[in-house]
Sequence to fold (747 residues):
Amino acid sequence: MPILLERKQLVTPGDLIAEGEYIAGENTFVENNKIYAARVGIVEYENKRVDVVALKAFYIPRAGDIVIGTISEVGFNGWTVDINSPYIALLRASDVLSRPFKPQKDDLPQVLDAGDLVVAKIVSYDRTHDPQLTVAEPGLGKITRGQIVKITPTKIPRVIGRKGSMISMIKQETGCNIILGLNGVVLITGKTLEDEQLAMRAILKIEQESHTSGLTDRITQMLREEKSKREENQK
Amino acid sequence: MASIITRVKQKQITQLIDKEKRMDGRALTDYREMKIEQGIIERAEGSARVLLGKTEVVVGVKIEMGEPFPDTPDEGVLTVNAELTPIASPAFEAGPPGEDSIELARIVDRGIRESKAIDTEKLVIEAGKKVFVVFVDIYVLNHDGNLIDASALAAVAALLNTKMANYEVKEGEVKIKPGYEKLPINKRPITVTVAKIGNKLLVDPLLEEEQVMDARISMAIDDDGHICAIQKGGSGYFEPNQVLEAAKIVEEKAEEMRKKLNW
Amino acid sequence: MNDKPEKLIDKKGLRLDGRKADELRPVKLEVGVISNADGSAYVEHGKNKILAAVYGPREVHPKHLALQDRAVLKCRYHMAPFSVQERKSPAPSRREIELSKVIRESLEPAVFMEYYPRTMVDVFIEVLQADGGTRCASITAAALALADSGIPMRDLVVACAAGKIDSTVVLDLMDTEDKVGSADVPVALMPNLNAVTLLQMDGILTREEFETAVNLALEGCRKIYAMQKEALKTKYVNVSEEIKEEAED
Fold:
């Protein structure tokens, strides 16, 4: 039996997508040999695999993912970190200090306090334990400046683009450095607030229009228009 | 990530405000885009919905008959209640009113009561025995800062929209007649909240700005430009000259708004 | 307003608001209306005005209520004091507590709770104006809010009521019909799986009348279900169309 819906068709939870010998992919579920959509999204299929690209979802931790989070509490031998996920992550003091934690000597709030931003990597996560983080690798650690923008995590690949084309273009047009957390949190650091806010707008626009085509061109156009407007205003 | 504001953001906001700039591009004395709709809840005697930026508040007015307070037998009764519904923010929990919702209700109440906005003497049916009771219920639906000004505006807009049943007293019994009368409103108080961040004063704080501010002062101004209620909130402080400066800002903004609303 | 109407349905088969026995009241649905919530929806069903918001999945408070193998679904149905004829106290009534429970139980089978152990999903429903059938409209709104939040679901849930006024079984009772009529049967359905997740009855019916009522209610459910799907898609369809228009300029 065939796939009942065409590519790029919008589906809602419970919609029947395919019957028979197909592999159920992302955001689908199977009942009685039929594949149904589990989230609002767009149907995609490749060979025998049927996926729904969800229009909105939240982040479930995966070991190895780079994420950006906010310290929510200082515990007695580490910190709890909000990583924009249903699950709160843990960062051990020994990981940050790169040596065993000494309760009498080490003053944890001095190192990292509630409200601090960090780029971290998920070390481990499973159904019975909260995710563990590490910052003990190059490029990870406390963030001291920049703009944070949050988008639904399923759109991060769209922000990256094919072979990184979209993200490179944004970086180039705005002159900003951009770190993409796989948890949907993006850090933008630029020379001026205007540059950073321009990059933010581009990313939010991608989130809004990710289901349409010609996106890379439109984003490039928008960035160039905004920049020339700014140059006009400064004259 | 939920309602914790990051240090990086706190610093950015403080630094911007020091240069008299704001994250959303507004001037220190600019309000966000405001939208007011009246009569949105037909079942209530009066209602209004205010959108201030993304902050959304609905107010419903119900009028019932009841007994006057013993110390004011010749006046109707006004009672204001506020709900910070859990819909409006991840920080709001269901349950009995906490100190924030009680403070909000009492600030809005003070502005209406002290300005004598409602002609409560006209709400008397039988002196000392039966009066109209005006219930103003403030329902916060989305919290993006400055709930006080949005709620106060919605409350007055709802009162202006309120109709009361016609009645006549026959042989000691109150009989409802067909038709309606507008609630007798004498004044239209406007409340302006001024927040202090560093040593700058700004109006209509966003949620993020409220998370950074030292303190706030809200003042209600009546149609004649008189101040009829003041509330300082937040655990920081104002210097005396800042208090006076705030009063000037409030007077200006209230007049601006009054013209725009045609109140 | 306090006088009971003599007849709820006249000789021509028209009800007090001009509807026929099997006619639904007008329904308007909107998704994504509360920016702070993870998912939200606003429903107008006849004169009912209902707002639903979803927060979650998120951490469980207090911790000891967490389940190790699935998420906890919590639901709060609440009416605004100005939503009814005589002002209602904001404190939850016994009716609101019962409705919170049955609404939760109507939504739970649709959500993949087992994907998110040790978390909780909060559903908040506020009735801003009530005119009969609020529990059904609330379920319709809550299901939309859940889908809007991105939590995986087996199906949407939609609800509609049928009942008996004078001696006729009719669809979708409004408040006066509910108060004066002789039965009210609210039904909630997961349409694709054809599963009934809420069923209650107030009043008195023969078994045949009950069958007619349930079938009418299920029909009403399916009509509203089509509108739910449209509402979820609208946000994205609008964006696509705006882009096409811009490109044509």
User: Anything to note?
Assistant: Chain B touches chain A at residues 1-2, 4-12, 16 (CB under 8 Å).
